[in-house]
Amino acid sequence: MKLEDLRKIREKAERELKLREGKARVKIVVGMGTSGIAAGAREVLKAFLDEIEKRNLQDVMVTQSGEKGLSSHEPVAEVWEEGKPVVVYGNLTPEIARKVIADHIVNGNPVTEYVIEVREA
Amino acid sequence: MPKRLDILVCSGAACISNDSTTIKNKLQAVLKENNLEEEVAIVETGCMGPCELGPVMLVYPDGVFYIRLKEKDIEEIVKEHVIKGRPVKRLQWTTPEARKIVEERKQIPFFEKQMKIVLSNCGKIDPENIEEYIAVGGYEALAKVLTTMTPEQVIEEMINSGLRGRGGAGFPTGLKWKATRDADGDEKYIVCNGDEGDPGAFMDRAILEGDPHTVIEGMAIAAYAVGAKQGYVYVRAEYPLAVKRLDKAIQQARKYGVLGKNIFETGFDFDIDIRIGAGAFVCGEETALIASIEGKRGQPRPKPPFPAQKGLWGKPTVINNVETFANVRHIILNGSKWFASIGTEKSKGTKVFALSGKVENTGLVEVPMGISIKDLVFEIGGGIPGGKEFKAVQVGGPSGGCVPAEYMDTPIDYESLKKLGTIMGSGGVIVLDEDTCMVNLAKFFLDFTQEESCGQCVPCRIGLKHLFDILDRITKGQGRMEDLETLEKLGEEIRRTSLCGLGQSAPNPVLSTLRYFKDEYIEHIKDKKCRAGVCQFETVKEKETIEEKLKGII
Amino acid sequence: MTREEVLNKYGKSKDNLLYILHDIQDSNPRHYLTEEDLKEVAKWLELPYSYVHGVATFYSMFSLKPRGKYIIRVCESPTCHLMGASNIIIELVKSLGVGIGETTKDEIFTLELTSCIGVCGVAPAMMINSEVYGNLTSEKIAQIIDEKRRESK
Fold first, then answer.
1. Are both C83 and C146 inside the same structural domain?
2. Does residue B103 surpass a pLDDT of 70?
3. Are B414 and B426 in contact (CB under 8 A)?
4. Does C145 lie in the same domain as C92?
5. Residue B302 and residue B296: Cα distance in Å, rounded?
6. How confident is the model over B349-360, as pLDDT tens digits?
7. Is C45 found in the same domain as C85?
8. Preferred mutation among B146, B148, B263, B362 to probe A, highest tally of A CBs within 10 A
9. Which H helix or E strand runs over B354?
10. Is residue B397 less than 8 Å (CB to CB) from chain C?
11. B62 pLDDT band (50/70/90 cuts)?
12. Assigned domain for C127 exists
């Protein structure tokens, strides 16, 4: 790889990461470190995917990350939307994951009881 | 599990002087009477601000702020608010300032107090997608080094940064690299210790799982600085997911050409392979780890020669741990001055701590070096659950020692911890409350280290067994007063004469609990009493009651 | 993978010994190393049998005894200990009817202890093969064991 290649990939990837590429409106990032998985993140991830499919939401993507560090509130997931702060949810269960899709992603009302952090993207 | 209600009791100095401890104890007792312990959490917090209104207390998720509390008010709050859901208006504070405090406290202060450098990408980017790493500036530091800096300049920058090894002893990283560069021989190696020092620490796993490219990039920069072409990451077998993610990252790095031949067309070659352990604590010791990579039993050897002179296959080797390598790219990109401006005089940068045990918010915390234990446990950790008393923290796992509550204002850095008889280790901080028996804890650690001793040298193999036997006796109520002196003498002797770090540090849990909690040892021996209620003594009286209990059954 | 395939995969380099032992053990449905395995590995790498045996017995993750389909490893690190690992062990001993280091008669479960698995924030924890379970309670254990029992049928 040449130096210019690195810069090109960076530009493209930066836009994608911040959802400026038009591929998705919303991105849900599920913390899939061992702590998260041990606390049930796999079931939460499945619930997100399942609910998105059921509702046929074409503009919502789900990805994974490592752990954010707050083990006691695992499973944890982040919701990214362009131009909005990132909303971080904690203590998720499959049921709450479905609620996040219905209330937050579809209707725009974050499920405040489970929000553990709001930060800039 | 999250509780139905969280009651935050202010334990700032002002509220404590206003007797908030009585309020907390009363609250705990009333909750217990009403069988609400499972549903309601009591959280001690740092100062909430309105000291003149203390003692104060905040109820979540309702966001109700109570002020000027008296012991007699607690009953009413529990009966009305907790049970019936009707806040006690008489004691409530509802001004705009109160609302502001309520709002501010709502977000868990866990994140806002932290300074994330090493962990900045963990939990944010997809570790299995190299492009997400590149999007946040990944491999820019390697590019900078290869295209604009000489190896000597890189080493200079590392020395100036003041970065010290994050795996235990805290040796300056730049000097280690320099020694390896200066050592004779043209074949040199980079080894990343991913064996995660102390049990109770898990930052290295989280970094390998959450941001593996950071480690790869740090190793590549080290390789350029010392003149190595091959690196190894040694990961413990207990971390299968870390191995999987790292393996994927290495393959992607090769595909994108940031590992392999002629990186960034500069003629620099470097590649990395993974080696996995198979369950042996001693392999965290660097010479044992090297033996294990070579496919041998993981047994340490005496130093010198240090790995910088004679390491892997007898060749000069840089060996740093995961967190240390994860710092490298930030130093290169932001400069050594920036890095050295964080932390204390002798301990630069941030440190990741693994907070676990009897604390509200458990997990990984990255803070500037020099933060106090109190801030770590109460501000970020959210205090002790269940309204229990904070007793001590165990820092550095079985190789470290405890720091009692009296010293909670101590800044956490390499030197201050050493003065208190413990070590930084890899940063495991286990929080202990009043239900922990310190003698039993020391016994637990000794049981672990004597089991994990590789058996090569006598002080460690036999000495630790003796320490354990004595502790075992004391926890069973069969201790003798002269045991205490033996523990101290033998502990010091093992510390002085063992071959490697495992043996040299294994007596620390005994010596430090003896130093700070001798009264508990004496209680066990003289009064056959364990104030935490952990140790079971077979006293005559107890035997009788057991027999009585058994009467109806047999 | 058969033993021969594992050996061919890694070649004759001695530093691959741990990998070879791991892979052979993993491909055995009973998760252990036989005496013959050790002999063949020694021959292949041109090492004394005693050396290979020494390495295999030094590391706690290798077993020279047949084990069950699922190896349950309860973490006995200080944090898990503090957060109630001993109750978890008692629960498992009761529910499986075996002691530590033993395998159930139906050859489904082996109960072992492990050093820190690095999920201290969700202690107490255990691993079943390579899957990690945290925040353990009696109910959760009963549920997991039931599930695994059903899966194994």
1. yes
2. no
3. no
4. yes
5. 16
6. 999 999 999 999
7. no
8. B362
9. strand B350-357
10. yes
11. confident
12. yes
Which chain C residues touch B357 with a CB distance below 8 Å? 79, 82-83, 120, 123
Q: Which residues lie closer than 8 Å to B418 by C-beta, 6 or more apart?
A: none
ipTM: 0.94
**C122 at interface of B, judged by CB pairs closer than 8 A:** yes
Minimal CA–CA distance to B216: which of B177, B175, B174, B246? B246
The answer to whether the CB atoms of B297 and C55 lie below 8 A apart is yes
What CA–CA distance (Å, rounded) separates B436 from B443? 12
Question: What span, in angstroms and rounded, lies between the C-alpha atoms of B493 and B370?
Answer: 31
Instruction: Provide the b/e sequence for B478-496 (b: ≥16 CB within 10 Å).
Output: ebeeebbeebbebbeebbe
C124: domain range? 70-151
* Longest pairwise C-alpha distance within chain B: 84
Contacts of B361 in chain A (CB under 8 A): 70, 72-73
Residue type, B182: D
Integer CA distances (angstroms), B532 to B102, B383, B439, B440, C79, in order = 35, 19, 10, 10, 17
Helix-helix angle B464-475:B482-497, to 10 degrees:
150
Count of domains forming chain C: 2
Asked if the structure places residue C113 within a domain, the reply is: yes
Tokens at C147, concatenated:
């599930």
Kindly report the nearest CA distance between residue A48 and chain B, in angstroms.
Answer: 17
Enumerate the residues of chain A whose CB falls inside 8 A of the CB of residue B111.
68, 70, 117, 119
The domain boundary, picked from C36, C58, C80, lies at C58
Residue C64: inside a domain: no
Closest Cβ opposite residue B135 in set A5, A14, A67: A14
Residue C100 has pLDDT above 60, yes or no: yes
**pLDDT at residue A20 in the model:** 67
Residue B20: the pLDDT is 84
Lookup: tokens for B87: 């806040």
Q: Quote the pLDDT of residue B13.
A: 67
List Cα–Cα distances, B147 to B140, B189, B224, B268, in angstroms. Answer: 10, 22, 11, 10
Contact A37 C118 (CB under 8 A): no
Say whether residue A66 is in contact with chain B using an 8 A CB cutoff.
yes
Using only C-alpha atoms, chain B has a radius of gyration, in whole angstroms, of 26
Q: B297 — contact with chain C (CB < 8 Å)?
A: yes
Nearest to B202 among C54, C55, C119 (CB): C119
Examine the pLDDT at B554 and tell me if it is beyond 80.
no
Flag whether residue C48 sits within 8 Å of chain B, measured between CB atoms: no
Is the omega angle on the peptide bond into residue B212 within 30 degrees of 0, that is, cis? no
Strand pairing class (B189-194; B317-321): parallel
Neighbours of B408 (CB within 10 A): 17
Average pLDDT of span B192-196: 93
* CB proximity under 8 Å: C 90-109 to B: none
Contact B240 C62 (CB under 8 A): no
Q: Do A66 and B111 touch (CB under 8 A)?
A: no
Dihedral over Cα of C120, C121, C127, C132: its sign = negative
**Stretch B127-134: mean pLDDT, rounded?**
95
pLDDT confidence band for B553 (50 / 70 / 90) = very low
Which stretches within B63-202 are classed as H helix?
Answer: 71-76, 96-106, 109-112, 130-135, 140-148, 151-161, 173-182
pLDDT tens for each residue of C41-85: 999 999 999 999 999 999 999 999 999 999 999 998 999 999 999
- Give Cβ neighbours of residue B74 (< 8 Å, ≥ 6 apart): B23, B26, B27, B30
Give the CATH number for residue C104: 3.40.30.10
| CA of C118 vs chain B CAs: smallest distance (Å) | 5
Q: Do C122 and A71 touch (CB under 8 A)?
A: yes
In chain A, the percentage of residues whose pLDDT exceeds 90 is 70
A-contacting residues of C 113-132, CB under 8 Å?
117-122, 125, 131-132
